[in-house]
Amino acid sequence: MPLPAEPTVVFLDRETLAPSVRLRPPAFPHRWVEHQRTAPDEVLPRLRGASVAVLNKVPLREDVLAQLPDLRLVAVAATGTDCVDTAWCDRNGVAVANIRGYAVHTVPEHVFTLILALRRSLLPYRRSVEARRWQEARQFCFFDHPILDLHGARLGLVGGGSLGNAVATIAGAFGMEVVFAGRKGDAAPAEGRMPFDEVIATSDVISLHCPLRPETRGLIGAAEFARMKPEAILINTARGGLVDEAALTEALRSGRIGGAGFDVAMPEPPPADAPLMRLLDLPNFILTPHVAWAGRGAMQALADQLIDLVDGFQQGKPFNLVAGGRRAGLRCEAGRTIGRSPS
Ligand SMILES: NC(=O)C1=CN([C@@H]2O[C@H](COP(=O)(O)OP(=O)(O)OC[C@H]3O[C@@H](n4cnc5c(N)ncnc54)[C@H](O)[C@@H]3O)[C@@H](O)[C@H]2O)C=CC1
Ligand SMILES: O=C(O)C(=O)CO
């Protein structure tokens, strides 16, 4: 359904984009309302009467959506749309669009920052040097912490979209062997994919690049940690919720795996006593605050694409739809706009 004349566009969490990011105004007459942040009980009153909701991480669920008859488009200022009830939107003709491909450099660079730091014991060596351990060494260096090269190591990727593929390209330059996992439980995965369990059992580094959906929640749990190589490291820059944090705690504390690098948690921010926060004393665990995407250029690209989404929708040329495309004559499948429906 098209937007009305002079629609109201409400951005619920503007402060999730840095103040330096320029948001150009949509190219049509509209009323723009911007909130720095929005608490759960403020979502409904703020979106009443709005045709377009813009949000990054504000949850938008059925109980609220059902009370917003004027809403036509939810423009998510991120790739992951797990904060929106896309199934409800799809059933009820509310379009949901996301940002794609903006993070193909920034997230993979963060992934390799974590991988290299863990494989080379960067933080433990820094701590040792700070503690004057070098001065105690009887020769020119010391070997308190393990160092493992990337060359020749196997990288197992879960998710072969824009980020999985970009990580694979960098891995190739390091001389890593890259394997892509098939879907969990699928014994005969598509060509070019290795069975999920085999990827888990044989990879030196496992990196997650799939969306959080009901079927991927808890994708990596106790059974997966039990299968991993003792030196394996797990990288999660995708979403908290993909990994069972209690099982991760057990795997790291017992020395079952070599280490983990996480940029995401469930919930965010994590409370001070959350499982991931309690792991921070470990030298082989690194937690960053969901900033893998936050390279300056990537954030501006995201902001530009965000307004393109709104303009495209208003012009009757929606793109990047993950839900609600049927009424616009577009089919949405597995989070992808895959083409025009046959008429
Ligand atoms: N930490 C951060 O700053 C950022 C995190 N992300 C996260 O990374 C995820 C991936 O981003 P992109 O590669 O750009 O998305 P994408 O949509 O290009 O690729 C996602 C891939 O996951 C695959 N997939 C879907 N369900 C799966 C399952 N059950 N098992 C295995 N694979 C499955 C899809 O087939 C697709 O190949 C996003 O969904 C988002 O949650 C994205 C950007 C920044
Ligand atoms: O783009 C995404 O999915 C992110 O998590 C960044 O907000």
Account of the protein in words:
The chain contains 12 helices and 15 strands. The strands form 3 sheets. It has a 7-stranded parallel sheet, with helices on both faces. It is an alpha/beta fold and 343 residues long. It has 2 domains: 8-102 and 295-323, NAD(P)-binding Rossmann-like Domain (Rossmann fold, 3-Layer(aba) Sandwich); 106-287, NAD(P)-binding Rossmann-like Domain (Rossmann fold, 3-Layer(aba) Sandwich), CATH 3.40.50.720. The structure holds 1,4-dihydronicotinamide adenine dinucleotide and 3-hydroxypyruvic acid. The site of 3-hydroxypyruvic acid has 5 residues, from loops. Its EC number is 1.1.1.29. Keywords: NAD, Oxidoreductase. This is Glycerate dehydrogenase. It comes from Inquilinus ginsengisoli.
Helices, strands, pairings?
Elements: E1 8-11, E2 31-34, H1 43-47, E3 52-55, H2 62-65, E4 73-76, H3 86-92, E5 95-97, H4 106-119, H5 122-130, H6 133-136, E6 154-158, H7 162-173, E7 177-181, E8 193-194, H8 196-202, E9 205-208, H9 222-227, E10 233-236, H10 245-253, E11 259-262, H11 275-278, E12 285-287, H12 296-314, E13 321-323, E14 330-333, E15 336-340
Parallel strand pairs: 1-2, 1-3, 3-4, 4-5, 6-7, 6-9, 7-8, 9-10, 10-11, 11-12
Antiparallel strand pairs: 5-13, 14-15
The structure holds 1,4-dihydronicotinamide adenine dinucleotide and 3-hydroxypyruvic acid (3PY).
